């Protein structure tokens, strides 16, 4: 193995010219902007940033696209990037000032640089971190921006003046000492940045300090990465094994990504097959991580969901498992949409439910009796509400259900297993205490309210995740606005599930920071009581006062628990009993 060095700008140039490509075994770009910010901060300070692993090959290796634009490779030999994709893609986007593109969607990586940053390294973690999750899933938006009071200029300065880099906000970008990172890399002239910072004289002590810091930021492009280059003589199978071993250390990749590397090494160009079906599911409203589809395939090929068996599967076994998995997933999507009323994975407590659901259909040869259908629907909703696969050892629980289904188990047996796990399947008001918008109960709350015909309190549009436009897009609204409760109650209590309702963005903005004792009577006068009753909102005047907030929560939890139990009973009783 040869070792070389290359600067960041050289590596970015190689990507842009198409000289550096991604093999099919690589996962897609997944870094949130906060990770990019932290990487840039480390390079700015000259901290170590790992090595880059390449394989130079003449072999016609299946490829996948970078998340940044590339030209056609002018050379026959291709350098394949095995380790360092997330770092180099991020740096390429920042230095070139171009957005990244993942699964057909473009998003910019916009960072700001603080010309007044402290000399010593501080914390690089901001408030409101982005999550490395399936960011494409639809979900109701929070109303926090609508209700949070605007921070003063002094408060903004106090919050950020200890940071060197931040993810851009329009308010911070307008401040004189913050400059856009990509603009710094686009020019060697500091005058524009100094003028923005209100530095107009050469004898201003900030002139030299800011200029040095801007030049130091541009110096990130000269940061030298060590490159380990694998020999041309290695086979694709050997390189795949190296990729898996390298990326297994330190849990740098998830098990699904490592399994994908092994699968694509055996079944060449299968990535395109998987991604095509992933896109077809997304078009139906079920945009799932590729790892879920891979786990689904493993379930049909092996009867269990863990990836450790992937290395022993032959290509025919993988292809047969994939064909069955596709049909099972299609059944699952159709059952969820048509029989249960779930039209988005955002309403599921775990996507594992879709695997078990499709697997059940497969083992019934997609011929369900009315009692099968009724029991399966009840199991799905109860398992979703109680979070069957979102607590404990999720893969163990999924494997237990797969084994039970594989042995011919009926849906009633799955319900019994769920009851054994949870102790009881009805919902008590005490279970809702301390829950928030991330709770499985919150998703079931939406389903129950929607089935009762819940509508926006102003437009009378039925609540839905698919409404278009900022005016009508669904948000979960704090019935007692956060500004009303701030300082009186702790944030977890303010964000309690029982303080949340589903309304449109326009209605949320109309309510703004007014307390419910003011706005609820206004809506009742124009719309009647039903919009509030349907969402289990108590409207007794005494409960709408901030000093009685805890009593309001207790009463709404009681009403919500009653409604959720009725919702589950209705699912079980429509056509036969479980």
Descriptive report:
With 578 residues, the chain is an alpha+beta fold. The chain has three domains: 2-126 and 163-222, no CATH class; 266-425, no CATH class; 430-573, no CATH class. The protein has 26 helices and 14 strands. It has helices at 8-17, 33-44, 85-96, 144-147, 153-160, 170-173, 181-186, 191-196, 205-218, 236-248, 255-266, 270-283, 290-302, 315-340, 352-363, 370-386, 394-406, 411-422, 429-432, 440-451, 482-485, 491-494, 505-511, 516-527, 530-534, 549-573, and strands at residues 2-7, 20-23, 51-57, 63-64, 78-83, 100-102, 105-107, 111-114, 141-142, 165-167, 178-180, 224-230, 474-478, 500-504. The chain has a six-stranded mixed beta sheet with strand order 1-12-3-5-2-4. Strands 10-8-11 form a three-stranded antiparallel beta sheet. It has a three-stranded mixed beta sheet with strand order 9-13-14. The radius of gyration is 27 Å and the shape is flat.
């Amino acid at each position: 193995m040869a070792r070389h060095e290359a600067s960041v700008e050289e590596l970015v140039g190689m990507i842009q010219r198409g000289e550096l490509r991604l093999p099919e075994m690589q996962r897609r770009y997944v870094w949130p902007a906060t990770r990019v910010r932290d990487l840039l901060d480390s390079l700015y300070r000259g901290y170590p940033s790992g090595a880059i692993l390449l394989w130079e090959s003449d072999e016609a290796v299946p490829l996948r696209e970078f998340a940044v634009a590339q030209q056609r490779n002018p050379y026959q030999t291709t350098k394949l990037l095995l380790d360092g994709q997330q770092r180099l893609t991020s740096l390429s986007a920042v230095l070139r000032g171009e957005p990244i593109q993942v699964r057909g969607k473009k998003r910019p990586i916009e960072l700001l640089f603080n010309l007044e940053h402290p000399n010593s390294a501080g914390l690089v973690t901001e408030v409101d971190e982005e999550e490395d999750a399936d960011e494409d899933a639809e979900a109701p938006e929070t109303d926090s921006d609508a209700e949070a009071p605007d921070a003063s200029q002094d408060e903004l300065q106090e919050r950020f003046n200890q940071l060197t880099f931040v993810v851009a906000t329009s308010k911070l970008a307008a401040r004189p000492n913050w400059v856009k990172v990509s603009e710094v890399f686009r020019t060697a002239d500091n005058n524009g940045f100094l003028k923005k910072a209100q530095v107009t004289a050469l004898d201003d002590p900030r002139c030299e300090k800011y200029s040095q810091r801007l030049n130091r930021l541009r110096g990130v492009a000269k940061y030298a990465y060590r490159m380990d280059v694998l020999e041309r003589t290695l086979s694709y199978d050997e390189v795949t094994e190296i990729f898996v071993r390298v990326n297994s250390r330190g849990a740098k990749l998830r098990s699904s990504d490592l399994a994908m590397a092994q699968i694509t090494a055996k079944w060449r160009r299968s990535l395109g097959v998987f991604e095509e079906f992933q896109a077809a599911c997304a078009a139906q409203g079920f945009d799932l991580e590729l790892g879920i589809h891979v786990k689904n395939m493993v379930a049909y090929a092996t009867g269990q969901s863990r990836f450790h068996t992937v290395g022993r599967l032959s290509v025919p076994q993988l292809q047969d498992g994939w064909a069955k998995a596709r049909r099972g997933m299609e059944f699952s999507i159709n059952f969820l949409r048509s029989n249960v009323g779930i039209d988005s994975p955002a309403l599921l407590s775990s996507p594992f439910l879709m695997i078990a659901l499709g697997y059940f259909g497969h083992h019934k040869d997609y011929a369900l009796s009315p009692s099968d259908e009724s029991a399966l629907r009840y199991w799905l909703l109860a398992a979703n509400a109680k979070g069957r696969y979102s607590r404990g050892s999720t893969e163990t629980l999924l494997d237990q259900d797969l084994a039970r289904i594989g042995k011919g188990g009926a849906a009633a047996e799955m319900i019994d297993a769920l009851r054994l796990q949870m102790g009881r399947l009805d919902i008590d008001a005490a279970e809702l205490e301390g829950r928030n918008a991330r709770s499985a109960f919150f998703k079931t709350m939406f389903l129950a309210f929607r089935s009762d015909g819940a509508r926006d309190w102003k437009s009378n549009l039925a609540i839905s995740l698919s409404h278009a436009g900022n005016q009508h897009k669904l948000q979960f609204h704090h019935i007692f606005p956060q500004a009303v409760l701030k300082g009186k109650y702790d944030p977890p209590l303010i964000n309690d599930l029982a303080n949340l309702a589903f309304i449109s963005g326009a209605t949320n903005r109309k309510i703004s920071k007014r307390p419910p004792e003011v706005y609820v009577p206004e809506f009742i006068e124009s719309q009647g009581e039903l919009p509030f009753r349907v969402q289990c909102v108590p409207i007794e005047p005494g409960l709408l006062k901030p000093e009685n907030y805890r009593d309001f929560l207790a009463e709404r939890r009681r009403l919500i628990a009653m409604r959720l139990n009725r919702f589950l009973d209705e699912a079980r009783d429509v056509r036969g009993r479980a």
